[in-house]
Amino acid sequence: MASLRFALPNKGSLSEPAARMLSEAGYRVSRSGRELIVADKANGVQFFFLRPRDIAVYVGEGSLDVGITGRDLLLDSTIAADEILPLGFGRASFYFAGVPGAISDVSELAGRRIATSYPKLVRRHLEDQGIKADLVRLDGAVETAVELGVADAIADVVETGITLKTSGLATFGDPILRSEAVLIQRDATRVDAETAEAVEVLVRRLKGVLIARSYVILDFDCPTSAQEEAFKLVPGIEAPTVSPLAREGWVAVRSLVPRHDAPKIMDQLWNVGARAILVSSLDTCRI
Ligand SMILES: Nc1ncnc2c1ncn2[C@@H]1O[C@H](COP(=O)(O)OP(=O)(O)OP(=O)(O)O)[C@@H](O)[C@H]1O
Ligand SMILES: O=P(O)(O)OC[C@H]1O[C@H](OP(=O)(O)OP(=O)(O)O)[C@H](O)[C@@H]1O
Ligand SMILES: [Mg+2]
Predict the structure, then answer these.
(1) For the chain, what is the domain count?
(2) 57 with 119, same domain?
(3) Do both 35 and 62 map to the same domain?
(4) Per the database record, which ranges form the ATP phosphoribosyltransferase catalytic domain (predicted)?
(5) DSSP label at 12?
(6) Ligand 1 first shell, C-beta below 6 A
(7) pLDDT digits (tens, 9 = 90+) for 182-236
(8) pTM of the full predicted structure?
(9) Complex ipTM
(10) How many CA atoms lie within 13 Å of 71's alpha carbon, on the beta-carbon side?
(11) Mutate to test the pocket of ligand 1, among 8, 11, 13 (most ligand atoms within 8 A of CB)
(12) Is 57 inside any structural domain?
């Protein structure tokens, strides 16, 4: 079986959660030391640990088949690759920011200097708005660039907003981008059939983890007189599973429900007469 060549972040915010998600999907990604290539022979995958910023390059130009990186890093890459699955972690927004009062609107950026580690992404955004500004490309810690007089504003990743606040800056304008970790592949039309099949299996496994993270299993006992009303509350993915109970006039019901809706649904089920309402977590699944 040919190996699927998979690029994973070797450090940074995305590294640990990417490895955890793959491990939950059944792959063996653990590194015993600092090795940069790990073979998962049982699953026919070879993992290459690379800087997240370089991952789109390796995947886009075809040296590696798939990879996990940030949507913002993908869009900033000079080599294009296709986003095939958003992965729900590494969420962050990308904003312009400046000293409050000094700049409060994106239109005021015309002719100003903007520090960023994401020049392509920012340039394209400014062009779309017809704004001409000078970009100052920095590797990191861009928040300090305004204080040190290197730039008039910055464009950077904002997660909690703490770094901005402690640097005396505030965002202005709408978010330039909402980013999260994404699975990427080279231009799908250039992928051979065997690789496409391996990617399909990978995507199904990852979707299994995503569903397992966002849904819970709900079990309850329900009087048959209330079952129609209860089924409306728990439609499930196809339909709820209904089994007989060893008690006349009652059924046992099982269904998947969105994790964050579970408390409200449990209250509603109780109100229609359901009892012994249990919630349990999924490890993974194929839907
Ligand atoms: N708080 C955060 N800080 C930085 N990047 C974040 C954060 N939360 C999510 N991300 C995402 O992580 C990716 C940045 O990867 P990068 O390797 O630069 O991570 P990093 O946390 O900045 O690590 P380092 O600065 O050590 O290289 C981007 O896709 C970014 O949107
Ligand atoms: O909104 P917050 O939760 O404060 O997070 C955002 C900050 O985190 C990142 O910096 P990082 O620590 O990666 O350092 P870097 O700028 O050197 O990459 C990013 O560039 C912001 O500075
Ligand atoms: Mg960083």
Answers:
(1) 3
(2) no
(3) yes
(4) 51-208
(5) S
(6) 11-14, 52, 70, 72-73, 90, 92, 140, 157, 159, 179
(7) 999 998 788 899 999 999 999 999 999 999 999 999 999 999 999 999 999 999 9
(8) 0.94
(9) 0.95
(10) 19
(11) 13
(12) yes
